[in-house]
Amino acid sequence: MAESLRGASKDFDRFSQATLRSALFTAVNACFGSYLCGIDPHKLPVMSTLPSLYISHGSPMTALDPGQVGKRLAELAAALPRPKAVVIATAHWLAHKPTVGGAAQPETIHDFYGFPLELFEIQYPAPGAPAVSAHVMQSLERAGLSPALDATYGLDHGAWVPLRLMYPQADIPVVPLSIQPNLGPAHQYAVGQALAPLRDEGVLIIGSGSITHNLHDFRAGYSEEREAPYVRPFIEWIEQKLTTGDVDALLDYRSHAPYAERAHPTDEHLLPFYVALGAAGKHPKAQRIDAGVDLGFLAMDIYRFDEQKAVVTAQ
Fold it and tell me: How do 99-101 and 148-150 pair as beta strands?
C-alpha cells in the first residue's frame, strides 16, 4: 500500500503546471464561469469584453405588452455574447449606500398594485450568483463607495421585466444593485466605473430606468397621437452629449438639459443611466436604440455602450 502511494505521488509530481491549468480551466467552464466556482477570474483565459446597457423598462405592463421595446431587447440580446452573469442597477431599489443583492435564488418581486392579476402571476426564476455579488462588493469597496450586502432582496420589476424580454429562459445568474437617489449622478457614475472591469470577465452591467419619467403626465392626456412636448428635446440632448463625449454636462443634466424638471421630476429613473455610462470605460461609444414613446411621455430609449480603446500613434 505504501509503495502504491509513493508511486501515485511520483505520478502527481510529474503532472506539469500547464496540465494542471488546463484541467482547472475545463472544470471552471463546466461549472459556468469563474465567479460561480470561486476561482480568481484574473487567472482565467481572456474573453470578449461585453458592453454596458441602459434600458428604459417602461411600466410593469411591458411584461404583458412588450411593444417595440420587447422586440429591441430581444434583438439586442441575440447580438451580444452570452453573459456569464448580469449585474443590474434598478431604479426601483433605493438605498442610502450601494447595496448588492446576494441571494442564491432571488424571488420575483411584484412591486406594484392595481394591475391585472396575470401580471402578479409572472415569475422570473433566474438564479443568483453570490460569488459575483462578493466580487461586486470588493470592487465597490476598493473604490471607497462603502457598499452593503443584502442576502434576501430579489428582482423588482425594473430588473425582471427587461431581463425576461432579453433572456426568457431565466438561465443567466442575476445580481441586483441598488441606486442612491440622495447622492446624484456623479456618485452613480463612480459606481459604474468601479464595476467596469467585470465586463472583461463575462458580466453584463445594466442600468434599468427610464430616459423620461414623469408619472404626473398620466393625467395630462398625452398619447401616441399627442406626445409631451419635452420628450424629444430631452432625449435628443442626451444623445448629442453622448456623441460629443460631454460627460460633465450629462452629470449636471439638471442645469443644462432642456425640460430636465419635466422629464425627471425626481432623479431615480435616470440614475441607472450613469451606472451604465460609468461602466463603459474611459472612451465609451454610445449607440441609441429607439424603442418609441409609450403613452406619449415615457420614452423607451435603450443605450448600448461599447468601450473604444485609445489608439496610440507611433512617433
Answer: parallel
Dihedral pair phi/psi, residue 262, rounded to 5°:
-75, -40
In a domain, 11, yes or no: no
pLDDT for 47 equals: 54
Total tally of structural domains belonging to the chain: 1
CATH of the domain at 280: 3.40.830.10
DSSP 208-257: EE-SS--GGGGGTT--SSS--TTHHHHHHHHHHHHHHT-HHHHHTHHHHS
Measured distance CA(275)–CA(20) in Å, rounded: 38
* Model confidence pLDDT, tens digit, residues 84-136: 999 999 999 999 999 999 999 999 999 999 999 999 999 999 999 999 999 99
| Domain encompassing residue 188 | 44-307
Between these two residues, 25 and 282, which has the higher pLDDT value? 282
* Structural domain contains residue 144: yes
Name 284's bridge partners.
Answer: 307
Kindly state the average pLDDT of the residues 224-250.
Answer: 96
User: Cell numbers of 14, please?
Assistant: 510529474
Cα radius of gyration (the chain): 22
Picking from 308, 313, 301, 310, the residue whose alpha carbon sits closest to that of residue 55 is: 301
Answer yes or no: is 152 within a domain.
yes
User: Does 10 map to a domain?
Assistant: no
